[in-house]
UniProtKB/TrEMBL annotation:
Transmembrane segments: none annotated. InterPro entries: RqcP, S4_RNA-bd, S4_RNA-bd_sf. It comes from Paenibacillus eucommiae. The lineage of its organism: Bacteria, Bacillati, Bacillota, Bacilli, Bacillales. This is RQC P-site tRNA stabilizing factor. The keyword RNA-binding applies. Key component of the ribosome quality control system (RQC), a ribosome-associated complex that mediates the extraction of incompletely synthesized nascent chains from stalled ribosomes and their subsequent degradation. RqcH recruits Ala-charged tRNA, and with RqcP directs the elongation of stalled nascent chains on 50S ribosomal subunits, leading to non-templated C-terminal alanine extensions (Ala tail). The Ala tail promotes nascent chain degradation. RqcP is associated with the translocation-like movement of the peptidyl-tRNA from the A-site into the P-site.
Length: 89
């Protein structure tokens, strides 16, 4: 599944266009590597996303083509949430 689509379906980011922009700005990493919007997300991958001054790391638990709001949180598990420092990358 494409990264931007996963971020939108899991509701980590509200809109797919915003997910694309965030990814293309270099604020998303898959397993520690820079990721673009078209990068492929697989089960078990760890995604790190920079939201302003914090960095959220989640583990991909499910990939579904469509999801309801109640089920979206089941697509990932929160691994950690920490303040973002520029040298973290």
């Amino acid at each position: 599944m494409r990264l931007d689509k996963f971020l939108k379906l899991s509701r980590l980011i509200k809109r797919r266009t915003v997910a694309k922009d965030v990814s293309d700005q270099g604020r998303v990493w898959i397993n520690g590597r820079d990721a673009k919007a078209s990068s492929t997300v697989k089960l078990g991958d760890e995604l790190s996303i920079q939201f302003g001054q914090k960095k959220v790391t989640v583990k991909v638990e499910a990939l579904t083509e469509s999801t309801r709001k109640d089920d979206a949180a089941g697509m990932y598990t929160l691994v950690k949430e920490e303040p973002f420092q520029k040298d973290d990358v």
